[in-house]
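Q: Here's a chain of 288 amino acids. Please give me its 3D structure as C-alpha cells.
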Amino acid sequence: MLQFFSNDPAERRKLARSILSRQPRSRRRKVPRQAKPTALELNYYAAIRGVLQRAKALVDRYLMPRLRELTISSKIDALRADAGPRDVLRIMTLVNGEFRPDVTDTRLEAIANRQSASVTEFGRNQFEKQLKAGTGASVPLQDPPSILRINEAFAAENDAYIKSIPQRYFDEVQKLVLSGISNQTRWEEIAKQVESRYGVAESSAKLIARDQTQRLLGAQTRVRQSALGLEAFIWRTVGDERVGEDHAALDGNRYRWDDLPEEGFPGNTTRPNCRCTAEPDFSPLLDE
C-alpha cells in the first residue's frame, strides 16, 4: 500500500519508485480521464433538496392556506390595514421556529460528511486506476492525513451553504408576500410568485451540489498527487459544449502544482461549477 507522510517531495518520489518497482508490472497504458462524479452530485443535491422540501412544506402548511385572508383583510378594513403584514411576520416566525431543528449543525454536518466520504472513495478509486494505467503497477493507496482536514473544512463550509438556501427562500417568500399585500396584488398572483421562488431555491441547491462536489474532488486530487511527489498535471476539460472558452484554452496544458495559472486548478477555479480535472503526470515515478 502506498502511503506517504514525508514533507519532502523528492523523498516521497523516491519511496514511491521503490514501492512501485517491487510490484508486478503490466503494460503501461494511456492515463484515463477521471470519471464524472455525476451520481455523487445528484445524491448530494437530493440530500440538500430534502432540507429545502421541509422548508417548503412549512410554508405550504402555515402561510399558503391563509394567503387569501391576509391579502383581503388589509383591503377591506382600514383600521386594520397593517393586520395582514403583521400576521405574515408572525407566521414566518412560526415557520422559522419549526424549521430550526431541521438545520442543526449536527444534522447538516452529517449530510456533508456522507458526501465527503463518498467523494473520497470515488477519488481514491479513480486515482488508483490512473496510477495502474500510467505506471503499470497495481497498488492500493492510503490517503494522507491532509485529506481528513480537507473533508472537515468541506463539512464546516457546506453547513453554512445548506443553511443559506432555505433561509434565503424564507426571506424571499416573506418579502414577496409583504410586497404583494402592500401593492394590493391578487392573492392568486402572490401564490404563483411564491411557488416560483421555490424553483429558484432548487436551482441554487443543484448548483451548490455540483460546485461543492467538484471543488472537494479537485482539492483531494491535488493532495493525492502531491503526496506521491508528483509535481505537475495535465489540465483536462470534459470536452462538451458547456466548457467555457477560458478553460478550453487550458485543455492539454501541463502545469506545476506550485505554479498554477491564474484560474486556479481543476475543480477549484475562479469559475463556479468547474468540471475540469487534473490528469496526473507520472513521469517522475518512471525515471530511473
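Q: Can you summarize the key feature?
A: The first strand starts at residue 232 and ends at 236.
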